Structures are given as C-alpha cells and as structure tokens.
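Hi V.,

Quick status before I head out on leave. The structure for the redesign project is tokenized and pasted below; the design run finished overnight.
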C-alpha cells in the first residue's frame, strides 16, 4: 500500500486588522484571494541526473536554462503549492529513473503536453515513468493531459507507467488524466508469477481518479491484476472512486503463471467498496490467459463496490487457458453491476463470454449481445451466473409506406435500436456505442431493388 492527501488548489491571503479597527467596525469578512500557479516550461528533451540542480537542492525554485522535464518536476516539489509544467512536443527518454512529482501534502501539480501524438515520455524499459506522491502522504492533486506514457517497467509495487494514490493515508489524493495515451508499459517484470505488482499502465490506491478520452493499450501486469489500469479504494480516506469516460482499453494482456485459482485479469481491475463508473468507452481485444490457476475478465474484473457500465463497447476480449476461464468481457465478484446500452460482440470464454456473475448482482438490461434473440442463442455472446438480461436491445426494421404498388414506387426502410425486446423506448442519446456502425439492407431477388444497401447508425437509426 502507498498513502493520502489534502486537496487545495488556492492559497489564502489573510488580512490582519488591528484591535482598534476591529472594535470600531465590528465583524469584518476576510477576503480569499486565489494565487496564480507557478509555471515552468520544459526546454530540452535531455534527461539529467536524479540529483542534479533542483533535484539535489530543495532551496532551488528558479528554472535553469535549458530546463529538463525531470528538473521541472523537482522545481514543482521545491516550490510547493500549485505548479503547472508545460511539456512541448518531443520524445523525453528517462535515463535516470522515474519522475517523482508530488512529494508534499498540499501540492497541486499539472503537467500538460502538446498532445499525446507529439509529447512522449518513455521509461525506455529501465524504470517506471511517473511516481506521484511517492511517499503516500496524501493531499496531492495531480492532473496530466496531452502526453504519451510508454516504456515503463516495474518489478516492485506495480504501476509501470504511473503509480499514484494516497494508499492508507487519511487524506485522499486526486488524479485526473485527459487525452492521454498509456501504452507499452509492463509491471511484474522480474517475477511474472507475482500477484502483488498490479497495474501495467497505471496503479492507483487511495483517492479519486478521473480518466477522460484516454487510451490504455498494449500494457501488461503478467500474473498481477489490471493489465491496463488497477484501482483500489482503501477506505481510509475520502473522496474515493473512479470515473472513466470516452476512453479505450485495447490489446492489454495478462498471463497467470502463479498457480493460484484466480490471480490475473482485467484491462481494468477494480477493488474496494466505492463507486466506479464507466461510460462511452471501448474495450477491444484485451486478453487474459492462464497457464496454471485460472483467468477471468479480460476487459473488466470488478471485486467489490458499485459499478456502472453504460453506452460502452466490448469486442474481441478473450479469456482462455487452464482452469475455468470465465467472463470474457466482464467478471464480477461481490459487486453490484448495472450495465445498460452496451454492445457485447465476439468476446470469448469457456463460461460467460460477455459477463460472468460470480457473486453480487448484475442488471444487464437493454444491452446488445450480437443478435436479436439474446445471450446464449446463435450468434450472440453468453452470460453466466444469473445476470438480469431482459429486456434487451433489438434491431427492428420498418418501412414507410409499408406497402407499395406498381413500377417505380418507393419506400424508405429504417433499421433502429430505439425499442427494446419488451417494447420499451430507448433514447438515441443512450446509443453512442452504436454510432456510425454500418447496417446492411438486402431484399429477396426479383421484387425490389435496394438503392442504398449500407447505411450508418445515427442516434440508433439507419
């Protein structure tokens, strides 16, 4: 476990009044003045020694020229308070170990790249990339945007790309990721059979994590949990919780070589009694394999708390190998899951290719399972453990007018997902997981001609 923190983005200016003035005017409101954040702009892609400049002298707060990314994070620690670090386009190869911003409670550190396609920070397979609040003190607020984090390697605590969170501290850490790419990082490297080095791309324990428009791809945690992202609520600090919006988890992999019954799984792995929310996101071609023991939940492995998964896509996720491979897309244990307006297509597992409910409860109504007739029927993904799956999304077809007579008469045919299997109305705004997907139209030969045989779904209709 790591630690916790006090969230403060502003400093206060205290106006001190003399006793005589207070006596003459009575009560006086004390104004709060927000102080501007200290700003540093990185000016070289070269790395410096771990103890160079501001990294070896806590009294230094003035940026040198040129300014490396490493020394910028050390300056942020030395300055304290709110600091913004701008990182221009370029590849920043770390030769001297991980970066460690957020060493003091009360810090607010914002690191902004020029865009994930342009600003790349790489551990080069030598070390973790970022360790935020490395002493688990709590009270650190961090925000990362417009960066690619890659080449992280760890064999200690996990979190090869990013390790963050307050651990068991009594004050939460806050971390937000926006428009990031977390790719090609590996935890549990030296001992791939270990089960306590979670989070190939990111490990976060203790606090609140917000992920928006971010991609986790080609990360691994080997036999540990969360090949892409591992989140654990510790219950010792507040607030806690995870929100994932508009993000993609693709080709993340886990391989259980430990021999314990269930020790790996999940591009996204969740633990603890808090609230988790995933919306408008994609889970594509993630894998969980067991050579011994068993494997579960290639896309999501949830173990506790309350999880909502809405308007999201699960395709090509696979659980395989020894034991009882279960929950090709989602595996839940002691979790209350609600999953609506999701698309489950082409996932695979020996049991429950889409969802396996080991314990807790699962309400997976108004989802699409790959065919109109529902999970377990021909062409559809399967479920196991008794999740509620009715009503379900169905693709219906209507024509206007319904009947045409004579040559050259026309009718408009509409395919739609806007009514479920029990006739309930489904709002088009809920069907983002199907936006722009193609629908093919055909007609038995000899009686009609289809002029537009393929159209795209827009707000649930084509």
């Amino acid at each position: 476990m790591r630690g916790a923190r006090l969230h403060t983005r502003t400093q206060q200016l205290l106006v001190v009044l003399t006793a005589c003035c207070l006596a003459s005017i009575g009560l006086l409101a004390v104004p709060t003045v927000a102080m501007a954040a200290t700003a540093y702009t990185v000016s070289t892609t070269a790395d410096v020694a771990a103890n160079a400049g501001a990294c070896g002298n806590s009294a230094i707060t003035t940026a040198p020229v040129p300014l490396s990314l490493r020394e910028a994070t050390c300056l942020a620690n030395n300055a304290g308070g709110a600091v913004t670090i701008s990182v221009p386009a370029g590849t920043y190869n770390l030769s001297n170990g991980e970066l460690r911003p957020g060493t003091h409670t009360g810090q607010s550190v914002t690191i902004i790249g020029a865009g994930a396609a342009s600003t790349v920070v790489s551990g080069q397979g030598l070390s973790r990339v970022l360790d935020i609040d490395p002493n688990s003190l709590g009270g650190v607020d961090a925000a990362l945007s417009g960066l690619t984090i890659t080449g992280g390697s760890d064999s200690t605590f996990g979190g090869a790309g990013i390790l963050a969170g307050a651990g068991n501290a009594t004050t939460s850490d806050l971390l937000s990721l926006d428009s990031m790419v977390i790719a090609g990082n590996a935890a549990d490297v030296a001992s791939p059979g270990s089960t306590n080095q979670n989070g190939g791309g990111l490990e976060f324990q203790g606090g609140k994590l917000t992920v928006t428009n971010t991609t986790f791809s080609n990360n691994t945690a080997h036999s540990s949990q969360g090949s892409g992202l591992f989140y654990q609520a510790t219950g010792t600090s507040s607030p806690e919780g995870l929100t994932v919006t508009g993000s993609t988890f693709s080709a993340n992999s886990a391989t259980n070589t430990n021999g314990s019954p269930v020790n790996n799984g999940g591009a996204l792995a969740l633990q603890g009694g808090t609230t988790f929310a995933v919306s408008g996101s994609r889970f594509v071609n993630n894998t969980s394999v067991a050579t011994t023991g068993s494997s579960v939940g290639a896309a999501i492995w949830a173990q506790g708390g309350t999880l909502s998964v809405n308007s999201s896509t699960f395709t090509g996720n696979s659980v395989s190998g020894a034991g009882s491979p279960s929950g090709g897309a989602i595996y839940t244990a002691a979790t209350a899951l609600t999953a609506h307006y999701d698309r489950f297509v082409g996932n695979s597992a020996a049991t429950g290719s889409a969802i396996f409910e080991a314990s807790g409860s699962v309400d997976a109504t108004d989802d699409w399972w790959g065919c109109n007739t529902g999970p377990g029927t021909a062409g559809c993904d399967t479920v196991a453990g008794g999740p509620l799956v009715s009503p379900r999304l169905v693709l219906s077809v209507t024509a206007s007018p319904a009947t045409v007579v004579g040559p050259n008469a026309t009718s408009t045919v509409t395919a739609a997902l806007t009514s479920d299997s029990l006739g309930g109305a489904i709002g088009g705004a809920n069907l983002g997981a199907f936006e722009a997907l193609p629908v093919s139209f055909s007609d038995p030969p000899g009686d009609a001609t289809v002029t537009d045989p393929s159209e795209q779904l827009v707000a649930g209709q084509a």
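Above is the designed sequence. Residues 232 and 271 are 5 Å apart (CA to CA).

G. will cover questions while I'm gone.

Best,
W.
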